[in-house]
Amino acid sequence: MPPADSPTLSVSDVNRRARSLLEQGIGEVWVEGELSGVSRPASGHIYFTLKDASAQLRGALFRNRARFVASPMRDGDRVKMRGRVSLFEARGDYQLIAEAVQAVGEGELLAALERLKQRLAAEGVFANARPLPYPPRHLLVLSSPTGAAIRDVMAVLAARWPLAKVTLIAVPVQGREAAPALIAALGLLNRQHALDPARDVILITRGGGSLEDLWAFNDEHLARAIFHSRLPVMSAVGHEVDTILSDLAADVRAPTPSAAAEQLVPDRQDLLRRLVSLERQLQRATQARLNREAQRLDHLRARLRHPGEVLNRQRLTLGEIDARLARAMQRRLADDQRRLAQLRQRLVARPPRREVEQAGIRLAAARGRLDQAMQHAQTRQRERLAGLVRQLQAVSPLAVLGRGYAILEDDQGQVVRRAGDTQPGQALTARLGKGKLRVEVKKRME
């Protein structure tokens, strides 16, 4: 026992020491059990009891962490929780301060989903990034007709862009039928696109829910159908913290259905404000232009002269030009007359007849030299041609044939050079010095 004079601790001191020992001694752990007594007060915190067959543990999930839990926490759910063991000093309650909640079995499911996500990413299924028409001419919405998502989308479209044309294609968005129905609807819309090109955007949307509620949108075949869609696809499934395969395969992802509608169409109020601003800018620019043109008009008016004054000035200028032209013409005429007289004197000094006679003499001499050169050239060419004829006859095979030889040819016109190239009974042609003979091989002697 502690001595009687030991310091006395307050209840707060004891609880503070107990909390420190629990937090430092156990630290952060994973705890598995069944939820019981789940309560959600107005503060946003979640209080619960985690129990197994022989014990129970109180716990709390504070608001700043509760918003990241996708699945709702309900009595009877079996979960795994990551957190630190602590103590609530005000009441002395021993408790688990949870940081993350995961349904039992969900870890394996998420691991399989992560493997599928990596495989599809490697195949390029998440590479779509086509721009969407803005605003779309005809929006096709794949969603539940009774869900909050379509109401949110229509409300935002009506407020921002009442001109939007929207067609709802009702499909289940939860359960086993959801993924096949969505795939079939995507295929039908893509086939109809050729008949109605005005249908230019597909929106796939639904509200938030648990991982099981949204699981249809993690279907591999649905992700591939979205990737192969000829129409651009926007996906807005679940809340902002939910990231599923259909979001990744789509061309554009929106965090919520309302955000999707806001991204698809402009805000008419913004456009009206912009139009008003542009109108004011146009008015200011127009007024500034009018002011500048008025100043320019005043300047031109100040420079403007009376037409009579301009005509008198031009008349004086014209008289000066006329006088200069007359003087220039007289000088040109006098120069031409002097040049003509000089040419006449040169013509008298050297009459053209003498030049023609001399040219005739030179032409006759050149003609004689040309005739002699042509005769010499013809003689040389004849002699050269005769020599070439003699050389050709010397080497011509026809000259050899004239001395009694013959050339044998087969039916293809090929010359037979060896006896081995023939066969007994083969017909050949013998070319002689004059004429040809048709012969037949009787016997081959090699």
Automatic annotation (TrEMBL):
The EC class name is hydrolase
Record's keyword terms, sorted: Coiled coil, Cytoplasm, Exonuclease, Hydrolase, Nuclease
Cell compartments where the protein resides: Cytoplasm
Q: Does the keyword Nuclease apply?
A: yes
According to its record, what are the GO cellular component terms? cytoplasm; exodeoxyribonuclease VII complex
Q: Which reaction does this chain catalyze? A: Exonucleolytic cleavage in either 5'- to 3'- or 3'- to 5'-direction to yield nucleoside 5'-phosphates
Q: Pinpoint the Exonuclease VII large subunit C-terminal domain residues.
A: 128-439
- Please state the Enzyme Commission number of this protein: 3.1.11.6
Q: Which residue numbers delimit the OB-fold nucleic acid binding domain? A: 9-101
Coiled-coil region(s) at which residues?
268-295
Q: Which Gene Ontology MF annotations are present?
A: exodeoxyribonuclease VII activity; nucleic acid binding
Under the subunit heading, UniProt states: Heterooligomer composed of large and small subunits.
- HAMAP family associated with the record: Exonuc_7_L
Q: What job does this protein perform?
A: Bidirectionally degrades single-stranded DNA into large acid-insoluble oligonucleotides, which are then degraded further into small acid-soluble oligonucleotides.
By sequence similarity, the record places it as follows: Belongs to the XseA family.
* Protein name per Swiss-Prot or TrEMBL: Exodeoxyribonuclease 7 large subunit
